[in-house]
Structures are given as structure tokens and as C-alpha cells.
User: Fold this.
Amino acid sequence: MSKINLLLGLQWGDEGKGKIVDIFTEQHDVIARFQGGPNAGHTLVFNGHKHVLHTIPSGIFHDKAMNIIGNGVVIDPSIFKKEIENLLPFNLNITEKLVISRNAHLILPTHRLIDAASEVSKGKAKIGSTLKGIGPTYMDKTGRNGLRVGDMEHPEWMEKYIALKEKHLNLLTHYNVKLDYDMQELEKAFFEGIETLKQFPFIDSVQYMHQAMAEDKKILAEGAQGTLLDIDFGTYPFVTSSNTSAAGACTGLGVPPNQIGEVFGIMKAYTTRVGSGPFPTELFDEIGEKIAQIGNEFGSTTGRKRRCGWLDLVALKYAVQLNGVTQLLMMKADVLSGIDILKVCTSYKYNGEEINHFPFSIDDDLLQPVYTELKGWHKDLSEVKEPSEFPAELMEYIQFIEKYLNVKMTYVSVGPDRKQIVKLMS
Ligand code: GDP
Ligand code: IMO
Ligand code: MG
Assistant:
């Protein structure tokens, strides 16, 4: 019986998960997305093409691997259809390589409207949601009102859809917000998306996953967002509405915790965040601007500018603990080339006291980062293939992180392309 390897983000998302899933698909038979929805944007770059996936797992470009959209995922049929259409020119035989859990919940057009109304009504306190309807869909899931993929096979599907839509339209009247929308147009896209979804096998995913494990298949679970956006453990309320941490893989795929094998923790060499919420190490100077420009830090889903800052090791330690990370993968090391002094946050000043853990609140007024300074490097890393070519300062940066987090780093990424990856150890 095989174990499931787990790959997830350790920060506020966009760490580079998609790129690594794509690379690791070579060594796996099944890639399974376990939570989130089209709020995710996972970027893959190879053969001169850039692909951004939202709902479809990042193993889809490989010939052999099967891709699963797990029960923990929320699916917007209209976005799913667009994703499928974007992939058509690449002749991927997608209908044979992608299966969908019957238990996954559907994002209705009215979920998106509620998301928008909720954000507008919050004013300055808005979450900075991607407005994909994620929060309202998970609310309906936990509120036991949601519609699932399997419901489409049910004779009362249309009645169920209409009942939920009516409920949402009623709810919308309670927000004192005027939204412009054309329901007919939204529903047209939704039902066209439903037809696209129906071209794929719907599966009883617990049975599927357990059979794959029994057949000794190599399985990689693909996380979306990042640990600091977790509904329970993130910077609440500025989080997403699912468990983005390791526990979410068990509930999002129906696999027991003792079946988890390696836990690959993906981190950027610095920190970014898109949307609102506290960010202790955020930079507001020219270094932050330089990182944003060189790192091309614009959201893959919304195009919004990502906020950039120094590496926060206190927050990373928290993420490593929560997820049981067994291997660290550091992305975007190339972006830090050319900065003389690199700061890393190694403790916080919280209410006047120095602390080493991630506290209840990391609000800016209560908490300031305490930095350790490390020497930067100037070498262009984009062509580096072996760790022996790394500048000594980068090796020191890596070793400092490993020591602080007490986890081995196994890969360093030095550019967006599939080939720009350096293996540190076997
Ligand atoms: P994900 O959501 O975790 O899959 O990450 P995103 O795709 O949203 O954001 C990561 C961005 O960084 C994408 O534009 C990637 O193409 C890019 N990227 C990934 N790894 C590297 C790297 O090592 N260096 C550079 N410069 N860009 C990278
Ligand atoms: P990937 O998988 C970065 C952020 C949003 C917002 C908050 C809530 O590409 O790493 P939501 O739409 O979920 O209600 O938004 O979470 N967010 C992400 N930030 N990467 C993501 O996904 C994100 N998905 C959601 O910006 O602050
Ligand atoms: Mg992303």
C-alpha cells in the first residue's frame, strides 16, 4: 500500500506550487487537488509556453499521470470550461486523464454575487477576496446547503439548483449593495460549464484513492493557497475558507493521516501576499519594489500586485510544525540576486516582549519583526544547474533557514521554467 506525498504552500500562497507539481509528476501516477477552487492560480512554464491552472491539477501536461479533483475542492463550471478550452490546442487527451469527485461542491453564479456583495459591504475591512465565490460556497457546504457534482446526476438537480439560487437572491437583498449583473448571461455560462464538466468521469473518490493506494500507485496531493491562509490557522479573518494545511489533504481526499508520506513544503526565498491582512515583514521601500518587479509579483488569478517583504522564519516555523514538513523547496532564489544585505525575521516583538512563535494576532500595531541580517549575493542564478555553482552567500542563506526550521532543503528554484531547478540532495 503506497503512501501519499503531499505538496503545499507554507506562506500566503503563490509560492510556486504549480511548477513543482509539474516537475514531480514525472515520479507520480496520480495528482490530486484537495481543496480551494478557482481562487488558485498555478503557473507552469515549459517549451516557451506559460500555463495558468485554476481548478485542474498541475499534472495535466504529462502523458501518464491521472489527475483528480478531490472532494475538498469547489468547482466553478464556467471557469472550468474556460480552462479546458485553453488546453485544447495542446492535444492532451484530457477526458482520459482527469476525473472529478462526486463530493466536490459547485460554485453557483449567485455564490460569486454574494462574495462581491460581502466584500463591498465590508468597505475598508474587506478580505481582498479573489471574488470567485469561494467563501459563500464553503459556507453552504458547512451550512449543509451546498450542491455537489454528484447532484447533477440526480433527477431533482434542477429543482435543487433553483432552490439554492432563490435562497441566494433573497440573501442578496439583505446586503445594502447594488450589484450590476445579468442573471441570464451568468446562468448561460454556468450551464454550458456543466455540460463541459459532464464530459469527465465523476468518481466516488474515496474508493478511487484507496484503490490507487492498494495498487501501490505513487500519489501526489496538490495544495492550493498557503498555510497562512488556512481557515483555522491563518491570519483570520484575512484567510481563505478551506484548510490549506496538511490536515486539509486528509479531509479533501478521504485519506487517513497515517497514509501521508513525504510533505513537501514550498516557500519563496522572500514573502509575498495578495489581498488584505497583516504582513509583518512587508517592504514599502525600493527593495520591495525591486523584488516585485524582478519576481514579476502579480497575481496569477486576479492580476493584482502582490505585496512583497523579507522572509519570515517565525511564520515559516509555524507552517513547518502545522504541516509536518519533511522537505523544504525554496523558490525564486534568483529574484534575490543583487541585494547586498538580506534580512530574515527570526523573532517578533509582541506587546513589548520578544517571542519566537506565531501568536493569536500578528496585527502591525501589536507586533514588529526582529531581523537577522545575512549577506546577499550578486551572481545571476538563472543558468545554474548544480549546487556547487551557488555563491557561498546563497549556501549560507539556505543553511540558516534549514537550521532555524530544522528541516532539510532539497530543491532550490532559480527561474520560472520547468528546467530551472537545482537539486540539493537525494
Ligand atoms: P502557485 O500558486 O504556488 O503555483 O504560484 P504562482 O504560479 O501563483 O506564482 C509563482 C510565480 O513565480 C509564477 O509566475 C511562476 O512562473 C514564477 N516562478 C516559479 N518559480 C520561480 C523561480 O524560481 N524564479 C522565478 N523568477 N519565478 C518563478
Ligand atoms: P494559489 O493556490 C494567493 C487570497 C486572496 C485573499 C484571500 C481570500 O495560487 O497560491 P478567497 O478568494 O479565497 O476568498 O480570498 O486569500 N488567496 C490567494 N492568495 N494565492 C492563492 O492561491 C490565493 N487564493 C486566495 O487574495 O486575500
Ligand atoms: Mg498562485
